[in-house]
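Workshop exercise sheet. Pairs work together: one partner reads the sequence aloud, the other fills in the structure field after running the prediction. Swap roles for the next sheet.
Pair: D.N. / O.F.
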Amino acid sequence: MSLLYPQLLWLLIPLVLLGWMIKHRSLTQTVHLVILALLIIALSRPQIKEGVQKEQIDARDILIALDVSYSMRAQDLQPDRYTYAKETIDALLKKSTHDNIMLIAFTSNPLILSPPTTDHQLIHTALNALEPKNILTKGTSLEKLFKKISSLKKIHREVLLITDGGEEQDLPKLLDALRDSDTHLTILALGTTQGSTIPTEDGSMLKDRENHLVVSRINPLLGKLADATSGNYLQASGSPKNDAEDILSSFDQSDTAQKADKLRYSYTELYMVPLFIATILFLMLHTRASRYLLILFAMAGIQLQAGFFDGITLHKAYAHYENREYNRTKEILGNMESPSLQQRYALASAYYRMGSYTKARQLFASIKTHTPEVKQKLYYNIANSYAMEGMYDKARIYYTKALQLGDDADAAHNLVLVAQLKSAHDAQLGIAHPKSQSEANSQSDKPKDTEEEKSSRKEDQPSSGSGSGGQKEQSGKKEEQQKRRLELDKDAQPLPLSSKVYELINKGYIRETQPW
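Structure field:
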């Protein structure tokens, strides 16, 4: 067990001192002290860690490619290009909390600093551990970077290229390197068209082999590259936060959000236990019905406790449902020992959101009620489940049953739509999905299927791939590594990167023939 706010337990010290100072306490005073102690414990938020949970979220796959070559020390952006780029990445991470992000640092050689992850603390750690003073490479090779990107897993991803462009001139070669990658390119060009000199460690300005000052400018090829790939070209505005907003707007234009797995710790809150005990003690102490309360608790016994904790469990499940954590909702509701109408309805809703339409429909159909409003809602959700599986004739029957119990604009709209879908299906003209019922028309504040969510997931569908033992073993290792990453202490100081990392970044440094 752990405490979310353990510092509040310091308040118990003056409470203990107060009890010690009162030599001859009455029963009422003692119970008051116990009630105050229970309230302090409740405020400290005791909780039990349940372990790592995997959940599916809507997320983009984003690859951030950061130029860390020597030219990024130029100071035409304050305080310098590299620091400005870091601040922009930090602002972007804060605004895209659910996205699956990979970080690559590149000069004349690319190197993955952080694999794809939704734990953005890992990216912060990797970025802060990178020391520019240990990077000696002056060249910038976009061609090698793009070849590295093309060699990664073939999925559609957003690529954010943060660079000044170096001295790249061969656009066809760059396009050829990107040919095999399914990417949407967004370029953030750092620097100015006028350019800037580059300071060295001793305070002087960098010079070339002919002893001329080196002036680093934005490479005009970057704009042509963005146009040729139907990407977006952005130039640093001077505000990292504004640039992060512009980058997100660029991502939104391509609308590449997909389902992604996220690992997170799950906790069971226990604050309601001391709060409940404190409430009972107060009522027993200050009401004349204390003896009747004792008799009532003795009669209710385990049932009262079960009902109380079932209510807590339902509340917790609803909270996960509102956060679209449907897998977690299903796990919580499935473990309830005393199923109720609310539990079965919420569980059916969770299955529906996960795309398990058959299980959802079976649960909706198993709920018995004599209330017309609830029955209408059940018929509507059963019809939606049939419609999502392409069973338009059965969907039409249940939409009709729902309308027989009362007017419903969404059910009427969907009834017309499934009739059209049936005709279109028969004519092999394709399909659409029925309109969902709005939240405003829901008959309960509990989670219901009041919106349709298009999903490609099929119930109990096996995963694709060869399924070889080696692949399973590698997958297990990756999952274990992801779990370990979650255990990183966010307050820990970032460790410096090993010399091997800088060796890989600086690879080929002594052979540079065109350092700019």
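Discussion prompt: The chain has three domains: 1-44+271-300, 56-261+488-509, 339-441. What would you look at next?
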